[in-house]
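re: that chain from earlier
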Amino acid sequence: MGLNLFGCVCGQFHSSGEGMGMDAERVSVPIPFYVLEHPDGVALFDCGLPAAMCDPEESYLRALRPLGMDVSLTPAETVTQRLHALDVDPLRVRYVVLSHLHFDHAGGLRELPNATLVVQRREWEAGFEPALSQRYGLRKRYFDLGHEVRLVDGEHDLFGDGAAVCVPSFGHTPGHQSLRVRSAAGDHILVGDACYHAGVVESRRFPAISDHAAMNRSLESLLALRAPETVMVFGHDPDQWGERPVLPLARS
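^ sequence. v structure.
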């Protein structure tokens, strides 16, 4: 048995088009996370929104709305329900590889209490440094929940066989990382928020609150990893999660 890779969408993020590098006044974009089934255990890359955000009056959502941001999440879209649909027990998830500590990527951790978090050391440290956590919006209430944490520095081979390799892609946040996955579905680079969508590859319209020079270097490094058959799966690309999803959503 090799590695199986699935995609899941955990709600939608709503913001100005400018904030997402898109030419529209307002946009709604998917919030994906990824399930990796390996002989040595199940891993997730990111884990979507907190289930509490099914309630539109959740406190952080109320704080985001004056800034022009919001989310929508239904009970069927939570991490727990997406995993159940794949016959995966959330309590048996071994690893959660976090691209970064934003609430829409780390928010499902409360539903995965037995997982070990795999995080770049500089990202985790930024989450506990007041000035950096404030600047980048790293909210401890969503990630500092008592999980075992494996801090990594640079590239990290998750299972030790090259099937899933963490690749540093700093800039969106201080310690953002992406994941190179070789699976039955092919060769994929799960980019995370190092690049929101395919259009940013050309436009380089990065978020305002980010290190643009670092993001540019990271994106160039990720693009250089591509082989002809490699598929880049971007952080919030509506075109990749429409009628023809970029990754399987269910077992065939």
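The mean pLDDT is 97.
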